[in-house]
Amino acid sequence: MHSKLALAAIVLAGSVLAYEGQALLAQYAPSEELPGGEVGTTDDHGKNAFSLPYPGLSDQQKTDFVVGNSFFKKAWVEAPSSTKARDGLGPHFVAQSCGACHTLDGRGAPPDFSNGIQQEQPMALLIRLSIPGQKPDPVYGGQLNNRAIPHVKPEGQVQIKYETITSQFADGTKYELLKPHYRISDLAYGPMHKDIMLSPRIAPQMIGLGLLEAIPEAKILANAAKQKADNKGINGEPNYVYDAFAKKELIGRFGWKANVASIGHQSAGAFLGDIGITSSINPHEDCMPAQTDCKKAPSGGKPEIDDKTLKQVILYSQTLAVPTRRDADSPAVLHGKQIFKDANCVSCHTPSYKTGEFKAIPQLANQTIYPYTDLLLHDMGESLADGRPDGRANGRQWKTPPLWGLGLVHTVNGHTRFLHDGRARNLMEAVLWHGGEAEASKQYVLKLTAQDRENLLTFLNSL
Amino acid sequence: MKKLLFALFSAGLIASSAVQAVDITPQTVLSQYGSLVSAGYQDSLASARDMQSKINAFLANPSPETQQAAQAAWREAREWYGQTEAFRFYGGPIDSDTGPEGFMNAWPLDEAYIDYVKGKPKAGIINSKTPITEAKLRSLNERGGEENIATGWHAIEFLLWGQDLSRDSAGQRPFSDYSSAPNAKRRAEYLKLVTQMLINDLASVEKEWQAGQRNYRAQFEQGGQDSIKKIFTSLGTLSRGELAGERIEVALDTQNQEDEHSCFSDNTHRDIVVNAKGIQNVWEGRFVRRNGEVLEGASLKALVAQKNASVADAVSANMLSTVQAAEAIEAPFDREIVGKKDAAGRKRVQAVVESLKNQTKELVNAAKELGIKRLNTGV
């Protein structure tokens, strides 16, 4: 304890030299270096930084990880085929593999635009559909599938247009944001419902998901209680959703609206919804009554992915390690960390937890982790709203996404597109889109000096 | 200087005791590593060029004989490329963000993405109107999924052998696919182009490892502990994550032909041997070249042995038994992996996995001796 204090004093002294007259440096705990805890952190900072398993896995878990990885990244093909283990693609689908959207287990981006023209159909950006009353569209179902196997029609195509919004920081520096507008064209089965609601969602990176699953529910609820007690206008709410594996309602942790409680449910759901692969949990192809070509398409087995393989993919998805922090104790990072705190970003982006028991992977218990999320829903304001409810989430609420690994997205995926639909072209734009409950934090950032803005980004990129 | 070193090492007279007399420092180990990598890519490039000339001869005059000669040259070139895979997994010239590895060795590939397959005579780029140009093929590679492979070793392999539809032999693509079959001309153009692209990619990597240049090698050799860590990462990841894991355990688990590495040529058993050999080369600081020359010098093993000889010996012993276990796998690999748990073939393949796992544990220990914690081994 004593030596830690001394260290902090030295760091602070250093800061006065480097940042004369500015806010103090935040403190630094050595455990922050390992955001995924002792069992769940990897040292790789290259292209594969998001693709490595928790170092604490057993031999058998490592084998399951490898096989799960293979089924995560290799493409499913249309049935019938000689690739027996991997046939059954579609009939409708968005992608041929999990890895097509979560490239290198990383984050997706919106489609390429050049000269303001959309060059391709989105891959890692899917569109959820519903009509008021949280019902699926009667003709197209709960999700748009913009691809299909031969002899089946893709449901439609996604058209995106960006509108440029110009504004400025308090110091006069101008910035531009891109506001997307979505439209579905080439509808194959007639018009959609007149009240159709579209909710675009981008594929997030896969790291540390098992650790998030191991956070005790009580700690998530404690976040909400603390926000209320702080009385700063932040009112996080949990989502509660049905879980197909637990067969009951659980607190939501995953997905942009916390609309999924477990990685198992998420994996089986994505297999059916995104690739068209049935499982024992979701035994029927997602063909709507009017989609006769879809109903007639051959199946790749009943179910198309067996339970053993599905379990391996789930374990894989739960056990991707979180990269170690970079330069976590440098003055610029600690300065940015202080700003992050002063702007009250920490209220929702809750830095750390101690994980609880986790039956599926016992090693994940009692780990000190740094995901920077409260896993709660927040009103993020009108400009981010998609207007579409999801479980208990209303059309303005989004779940606080974890921030760990943020600084390596560019290294892994070659882009820096953030937020639920990838509209932000960099981290500062992502901050500037914040509104609603986060309005005061954004106002704080707008008043920062250029140097302080830089420090804030340096901190975020060290995560 | 380079010549002198070569003369010294190629004499082959330096017994291991004499090698230990050489000053073993991270610096000398890195410099020997640089020589090994450079020689490895030179030999790989030269053997790939031999393959290219055999493929050109086949395309100029398609016949069973010229096709077999091209196939034999592919297998021979794989012997050299396979050993270079021990130089991957740390973001070097081969697999940095812009490195060509994905264009060279990606697998498994969806055959129908390139050419016809059983039941789909019009499938693939070859049977479409897609222009067959380098830019186009590069843009199509791994598009929409890692399995959509348009280029590299396995694309060439598929174009030479075709789908492997039989239990006991490799693919049986008729040579007439390159003379009288539909789209024969486009198929030939495609094969010629992807072969040239492979040569170009290999040459670009080879250049980065040439001695005495301002290139990646020059930087790497100055990298000290960081570069030592990269070498360990490479050996650990190829041992565990890639070879034991992706290339063998997945195939053992699914018992599926599609999950074997060189599935068209039934050459997977050799891929495994030369990968294991490549790992051993790096660890021992030793490489036997195509012309028989032996490169030998300051090794990672010796560097570790200075700290803890028994840990270093354990790694060496494990690597030797891995190579031996790999050599015991019988071809074709796709038959070895089929059957119950105690089937003789599966046991032979499983033995390689176990040996690779052990050698990875020993490598992690060895890395610790040099102060490297948390070594990444893929899994």
TrEMBL record, chain A:
Organism from which the protein derives: Chitinibacter fontanus
Domain named Cytochrome c: residues: 63-226, 331-463
Protein name: C-type cytochrome
GO terms, molecular function: cytochrome-c peroxidase activity; electron transfer activity; heme binding; metal ion binding
Keywords: Heme, Iron, Metal-binding, Signal
Signal sequence coordinates: 1-18
Keyword 4Fe-4S: no
Entries under InterPro entries matching the protein: Cyt_c-like_dom, Cyt_c-like_dom_sf, Cytochrome_c_Peroxidase/MauG, DHOR
One Pfam family this sequence matches: DHOR
UniProtKB/TrEMBL annotation, chain B:
GO CC terms of this entry: cell envelope
Entry's localization field: Cell envelope
InterPro entries found in the cross-reference section: Imelysin-like (IPR018976), Imelysin_sf (IPR038352)
Key words, A-Z: Coiled coil, Signal
Pfam families reported for this sequence: Peptidase_M75
Statement: the UniProt record of this protein carries the keyword Signal: yes
Major localisation: other
Stated name of the protein: Iron-regulated protein
Protein's organism: Chitinibacter fontanus
